[in-house]
Amino acid sequence: MLVNVWRHPPRGLLRQCELPPNVGNHIAATSVLLLERCPVSQVTQMSRSSFGRTPCRSRMGTVLWWIMLVLSLAVVADGLKYFVGSVRDKHFATYILPLRLHIAGGMGALLTGPWQFSDKLRARNLNFHRWLGRIYLLSVALGSTAGLAMSVVSLEGLPTHLGFGILAALWFSTALQAYLLSGVVRLNPIAGG
After folding, report:
1. What SS3 class is residue 147?
2. Is the domain of 38 the same as that of 74?
3. Region of residue 24 (phi > 0: left; psi between -120 and 50: alpha; otherwise: beta)
4. Buried b (16+ CB within 10 A) or exposed e, 120-149
5. Do residues 66 and 38 share a domain?
6. For the segment 167-180, what is each residue's pLDDT rounded down to a tens digit?
7. Does 117 lie in the same domain as 59?
8. Residue 52 neighbours by CB distance under 10 Å
9. Do 88 and 39 share a structural domain?
10. Contact 105, 146 (CB under 8 A)
């Protein structure tokens, strides 16, 4: 039985896999399970042109990418004040090391993150894309760990302790998911990753 598995719907990547006969008509299995049962030699990719990206959609994606980049740069520029001069807030001054580690991790993630969404960069220099991804993951690990430490000493009590702690854990877990997914996508180097 031949089953189509969507790995990345926005990019139009369709993989086909021959499943064992005992699976029958139960196609509700996850794509990871399907890929585990499917030998790499049986995984194929249909051309992107068959999915017909419209020029309008591409322009909108480009505009949104530039907005993301400009906003990332603005946040990085604002965070520089914690590295230049003295910190005015007494509470932040007390915990300046974890604060600076958190901000440095955030800056690294903001400076490398938008480039991970550039199809042109990935197509032209896959190795550079992968190195930027590694830097992004290390930045998130640093920023989320320091953010978790900062959540324990936040001023407004339990709600902020929990809120900032959950944000740090979610930031780390989404980066971990991206890392794990990059290994799956690497099955097909044309697809990116």
Report:
1. helix
2. no
3. left
4. eebeeeeeebbebbebbbebbbbbbbbbbb
5. no
6. 999 999 999 999 99
7. yes
8. 8
9. no
10. yes
